[in-house]
Structure formats: structure tokens, C-alpha cells
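In keeping with the milestone schedule agreed at the kick-off meeting, the structural modelling team has produced records for the first pair of proteins. Each record is given below as a sequence line and a C-alpha cell line. The laboratory manager (R.T.) confirmed that both were archived under the project's standard naming scheme.
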Amino acid sequence: MLKKEQNELVTRTNKGTPMGELFRRYWLPALLSEELPEPDCAPVRLQLLGERLITFRDSSGTLGAIDEFCAHRGVSLWFGRNEEGGIRCPYHGWKYDTQGRCIDIPSEPAESKLCDRIQLSAYPLIERGGVIWIYMGAAEYQPPLPEWEFATVPAEQSFMSKRLQECNWLQALEGGIDSSHVSFLHSGGLKHDPLFKGSKGNEYNLGDLRPHFEVAETDGGLLIGARRKAEPGSVYWRITPWVMPNFMMVPPRADHPVHGHFWVPIDDENCWAWSFDYHPTRALKESEVQAMKDGAGIHCKYVPGTYIPLANKSNDYLMDRARQKSGELYSGVESIAIQDSSLQESMGPIQDRSKETLTSTDRGIVQARRRLIAAATALAETGAPPPGMEATLQHIRSVALVSPESAPFPAVAEDALQSAPGKPHATV
């Protein structure tokens, strides 16, 4: 468990907090490309790490993320007109470019220099893999551009979604790196979900409910290995990489696409759950993409016109007690994504980790907390660069394999853990 002050440190991400400043040193998923589809399209509100921003694509296609509120009277620029190379406040016509510079105050005399003194906060955006990424730290510390494999394979090999999750980012991350719950919470999905079923690994998941966990540190985070019994003399490994601060990949199943998540804080009590699926050696099938759009796998159905899950806290996640009792749905909640979010949100907006009781299956969670606290503290106290900044550390894969019982972890998967263009993934 964590002491209350440790829990505060690791969960609070507003500007000026140790964890908030840590997050600001990484490229973070901000928007789907589809949200800003063309020059001069409607602007989009964006709240991340407690900051309220407005994002837009100007007439030349350049992306901008600036303070949401006009420097004149504080009007939200979401109401603004995106036109002719900038966004214009509809109240009095003040206009801003993608760098947050005021470029026109039509009510001022022609000789006025007021524009030159007006500067809204602004952050760089880049587009890669169908995602618009944001960097919210100091310019001199900007890291290399993202090189995650899902974002660098051809577009037809990858799919990305996002959904609102109404809880602190850390309890969502901790659910992601916890492999032991799969044999319970997601047991129905292993049998029926079109993006999970048919894997020999599912039999091992359901046949051994007491996985043994081993955790190895890497330069960028952790490798979390869950070992289960397979055939006599062999074991089934599922190895989950976690890269600082909020990226993880789920070990694959059969020839299904590989998937994983980012959890990006909106504020201290809400986050965006980003979910990707990709295949390293082939285009996604039409049936796979349709299943993802329909909410299968780690994706979900939405309230129309939003990224809010259709099954959410307000409707008790469409809980079905009859299907729970029959065993069809272990928790009575449909969809792997919503099974996770329903329980993570049930802990409250920010889980009180001083009251929990951890076991051997929580080794990955314990070590991830330690790495986060250490990195945030070192950055705050000494300015030490955070781990996981190098792009090469993003050339990582999750792994599922069967090996002899005597094979050591993580050497058993050393080559399989490294991504490379066209290289098949290790799966069972």
C-alpha cells in the first residue's frame, strides 16, 4: 500500500505538481486525427493535465493548441471563427495564430502595438499514426517524436480509439498492467469476443488461476511477466511491457491484432483511455476493423456524437445480472473495455491506496508505483531527466509464448520483445 502523501504525489498531475511536470516531458496522445479533419474545420476543446486548451487546424493545415480563453475578456475560443490563418474570438474579433500570438485586434488604431504584447500559452502538436500528439513541457526538453510501432506501420494495419474514463489515471494504468484479473473478469471475452477467441493461450489463462509473476526493470519502465502452467514440462508466459509514464501493451492472442493503451490525465479525477490495435505484418481485416468500431476487444460503443462510453456510470454500465448469474458475463458487464472501467471507476475518483491489501500478483503494480514516484521526485528535486525518453525504448512489443519450465525470465523472450518492420510477433 501507499502512504497518503505518496498517493497524493503519484495521482496529482496539474501544472507544478511533481507528477504533472513528469507527464509534461513526454509526447502524449491528445486528439484523434478525425477530430481536426481539415483546414479551417471547427476547433476542439482539449483539457489535459488540468489545463484547458483549444485546438484547431488553420488554413494551411498547421495544428495549434493554445489557451482556451481570449486574453481580452476571457471568452472561450471554442466559439471562435477558424478562418484565414487563425482563430478569431467572436466577441470583439481578437485573432490568434497556432502559436498563441495575437495577430489582429480590429478595434485598435492601426498604429497600436497591443498585438505585440499579447501571447497565449501554446503547445506543439504533431500528427502520427492517426493521432495528434502534444508536448506540454519546456521547449529545451522536447523529446524525439513518437516511434511506437502502432503509429509507424502503414495506416491499414492500425486502429486507434479513445474513451472517457471517470477516475484518476493511475487506477486505470494499474488495471492495465494487472494480468491476473483476465482469468476472472474477462473470462467470457476469452471465449466469445471476436478479437480474443480461438487462442490456445486462452485455455492456459482459464486453466491456471494462480499465475506466478516476475518483474524486470528496463531503462524505460518494466517488463511484467505472468507465468501459467501449460503442457507438462512447459509454461505459458504473458509478458506486458510498461513504458514510462503511461504506455502498456497487452500480450497477443493467436493471429489477432496486438493491442495496448495510454492513459492520459484530463484532471485528477478523469482521464482519456486510448486504445490501439495493430498487426505488425498484415493489414487489418474488414471484419476486425468493424468489430473494433462495434466495441469489441478493448474498444467500446459510444454515446452518439461523443467519446463517452454508451455503458457508463450513469446507467450502471448496463449491468445484466441474469448474464452474470449464468456465467456468460463474469461481472454482468459487457465489453472488455467497460468491464475494466466499471471496476476501476467503482474505486472512486482517486483510490485510497493506504487501505488496500496487495498480494504477490501485484508485483508489477508495486514496482510501477516505485518507478513513478522515484522519477517524479528526482525530476522535482534534482532535475534528473525522466526515464523512457529515448525513441529506441518505444521499439517494444508484448509477448505470449510457451517455453520450457527452466527458461529464465525475461531472457526467454529477449528477441521477441523487440519490434522491427515486418517481423512477426510472438503469440500463442
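The second protein of the pair:
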Amino acid sequence: MHQPAPSADLRHRTIEAPAGRLHLAEQGTGPLVLLVHGFPESWYSWRRQLPALATAGYRAVALDVRGYGRSSKPAAPDAYRMLDLVEDNVALVRALGEERAVIVGHDWGSSIAAASALLHPEVFRAVGLLSVPYAPPGGPRPTDVFARMGGDQEFYVSYFQEPGRAEAEMEPDLRGWLAGFYAAMSADTMPTLGEPDPHFVARTGGRLRDRFPGGGLPAWLTEDDLDVYAGEFERTGMTGALNRYRNMDRDWEDLAPYGGAPIEQPSLFIGGALDASTTWMADAIDAYPATLPGLTSSHILDGCGHWIQQERPEEVNRLLTSWLDSLQG
């Protein structure tokens, strides 16, 4: 079946927000649906959803999260804490002339969408989570948890903590690094059982790219698509994107008052059966009756990896529009 592609009425603009400037791509008219990307991506991650949602009667808006693409990139590392990203989303809804929106996120965008819905239920009337399940704030300090993972190997989130360290690996060959990272977490190109896990690095002198698969691009990613992603990061560098990881302890402190809090609004979850985010957080999915009491649609896609709305655009579009339609009743 033919995949929907961005059409001529896709509009780009920037709005003023706490970050300074937020770039967005917008298509369609109707109830507002805000789409929030993850790492290492951009608004372009939603290129297959924008026209489908517009056709279904929604005003679909995909932003570049602060630090990415054509949005502002504050210099201070602590400018990327979750509270600030949530306020960006609130400001975006207001700047678009709306009072309320449905928010949908993938990867880090799923966590940002969840926090937005938790902190501002008066603005975000429903929340869709792709790939990364909702886990309420609380528990032990995140960096302590990550430091204990992997034994003699270092977990990638710990590897990302020190400013400049991961950048030194990525930035000399951004296009090649992105290609390997996308392939490492795609269903059709990810390492097979028994091969080194690309979520970890050797503790001495290790690089993530040492674990990337050596084949071609995953089926969902064309050379032109890769050029778009690489072009954005070659212009901005990787620090703004990586700073999200460097605020996890700050987020843990900031969100402590919400420890254990459920998200009450209507919610959607879609995960990939082959995605580590889904399998590692299986307990969080099992806890949904308590943590997402408004969950009305939950799906695990067989044979799907991490880049769910790009690997399975038609299936995700169908599930997403059906869920959105159910909210209008």
C-alpha cells in the first residue's frame, strides 16, 4: 500500500517560547495534536503521520524539541530539564491559539508527553506514548541505577552523561554514526541474539559505534531521509540533544512531588515487540491499570523495533487516528 507523504500544504514556522524559538511543521485543520520526537531525531520523524492526521481531520503539529533542528539551543546544560520542555509545549499550544491539545510522543518525546500531561492536565486532554512506557516519577536516583547496569560494560545513558565525551564519537562522522544508531534499533537490521548489545560500551575506550551493525540502512530509512537527519545535526551539533540525558537527576528532583502519580487522561500506548524500551520496561506496562487508568488503546507490534512510527507508519497511523477519533465522542 502506498505510504502517505508530506503534501504541499505542510507549513513550517517558528513561535516564541521559553526556549527562545521553537520550530514546527504543521498540516491540517481540526483538533490540535502535538507530536514530540525523540533522540536523535527531529520533526521529520513524524513525516508519515502529519499528512495522515491532516486527512483524518486533525491539526497535526510536529515540533523540533529545544536543542534540535531549527529550534533554539540554549547553552546552559540545565536548560534541558523536563520542566522546561513541558513549558515549551504549553507555550506552543497557546501560541497556536488553542487552549487544549492531545500530545503524542516517541522515545524521549514519550517521556516529555507524559510529563506534559501529568503537570498540565488542563492543557493536554489526552496523551499518546510510543515505544517508551510511562513510569511515574520516583524510585532511586537515575544515574545510580544506570551506573549499576552492564557489569563490566557501561550503559549508553551513563556514557552520555559527561559533556563532550559522546560528542567526540559522533560529530566527526555524524551521518555514519546516525545510520549505525538507527540500524542498531531497527527490526530488520538490529544485532541478532548473541551479538554485542549496542546499548552498552566497553568501560575503557569504548564507543557505541563499535557495536553498530555493519550492513545497510533499515528499510524505513532512505538515503534522502538520512541526509535530512544528518544535515540538521551537522548544523547544530549533538550537545543540545545529549543534554536531555544530562538532566535525568535534575528531573528526578524536580518531579519528586509527583512521585507515583498516575496520568488520569485518556491514553494510548504503542510499543515494538523487538524494542529494548518495551522489553526492559515490561513491569511499567504491567502497571498500567494503576499508572494509566485512562488507557483506552494499547498495542505491541510484532516484529517491530524502536523507530515505531517510521518502521510501521500505516499501522501506527491507523491506531493513532482510531484512538483520536474515539476521543471526539
